[in-house]
């Protein structure tokens, strides 16, 4: 098993460029299945979850050519639908949560699909009902084999429908949109997610010949077309990486410039970090974070304790709450972190408490952080990463801590962050990859 060894307490300095957006990649790559024409995609992150999906597309029969480090062409002319019956598909599809995203395009173009119950992060229940109910409204029929944990889907006659989503699920909206673009008639999706990544997908589909209106709102109207053509698409930078780097700069008192962030697509993210007292400047399309010895958490106007909670876009993304929590441990003041979507995502705070942070875990969804204003540093410890975002939060804590930290199960981190150790070393971080077995407790 690989682990990171980090010697903390070192100020970092320099420029860092965020990778392409992981959450956009899983949607955009799946959309290549909607056409037999060539689709060229650039700024693809070189991370495990994305590479697994590209490999899965190849197994399905997509012709893939890598043009350079982050640019590929995809041609889904000869798809092998019998691959669904193979043990290889069951193993690969079940190990990748993003594999659910291929269902919508396959239903739209071929009228059938199958999917193993997906895996992914251990962050609590992540329902797929939104996807399935949407497909059923369009006319798909599902059969779940509980013994094999496998879904078979028949959709030989998809028809447009009015769909009111039970939650504004990003992946659910994306999957239903991809199924609807080739369905007969008009589909209306209300309470649709409107994240920048979903807007990117809709704009790409429109360039391919789809007819989607209402992009950027929670009401999407899709007029079905008979066929889609190829296109070129460049993915946005990863907003979660951008937020992670802002938090890392504050925790380590570092002067860092984050390059090419597509600032206008970041929504409230910069403002939330400013509420923690972090100074940052927009410089063109870059974010400059100056070295800052102290940062103080705002209060509400009446003086009451600040609450930072996740909510559907344009609210604050749940993927950055773990980062906000760890950054708050070294701030001056108090904050309540409310993680509404996933009931296990705050369970990594015991490691931060072991490092010297003052946190009260109120329940699976809420934690109160008493910022220690850097009066003493966190201390390095050995710990295990439970999921992607918690793993990076612990990595940020380790970079700011006194002494050496070891983080095990870094495969979780590398599912979402490309060459993170190499890129941090370029800023001056003391981080190295080692082979080590995780502690048994």
Describe this structure as you would to a colleague.
With 441 residues, the chain is α+β, with helices and mostly antiparallel strands. Helices cover 29% and strands 25% of the residues. It contains 14 helices and 23 strands. It has helices spanning 22-31, 48-60, 87-94, 103-110, 129-137, 170-180, 196-207, 239-251, 269-275, 321-328, 349-354, 388-400, 411-414, 420-425; strands at residues 2-7, 13-16, 38-42, 63-68, 71-75, 112-116, 141-145, 150-154, 162-164, 186-190, 211-213, 219-223, 231-234, 255-258, 281-283, 286-289, 306-309, 332-338, 359-363, 366-372, 382-384, 404-408, 430-435. Strands 21-22-1-23 form a four-stranded mixed β-sheet. β9, α6 and β10 (186-190) form a beta-alpha-beta unit. It is globular and about 65 Å long. The two termini are 16 Å apart.
What's the arrangement of secondary structure elements?
Layout: E1 2-7, E2 13-16, H1 22-31, E3 38-42, H2 48-60, E4 63-68, E5 71-75, H3 87-94, H4 103-110, E6 112-116, H5 129-137, E7 141-145, E8 150-154, E9 162-164, H6 170-180, E10 186-190, H7 196-207, E11 211-213, E12 219-223, E13 231-234, H8 239-251, E14 255-258, H9 269-275, E15 281-283, E16 286-289, E17 306-309, H10 321-328, E18 332-338, H11 349-354, E19 359-363, E20 366-372, E21 382-384, H12 388-400, E22 404-408, H13 411-414, H14 420-425, E23 430-435
Parallel strand pairs: 2-14, 3-13, 9-10, 17-18, 21-22
Antiparallel strand pairs: 1-22, 1-23, 3-5, 4-5, 6-8, 7-8, 10-12, 11-12, 14-16, 15-16, 18-20, 19-20
Helix pairs in contact: 1-2, 1-7, 4-6, 5-6, 6-7, 8-10, 8-12, 10-12
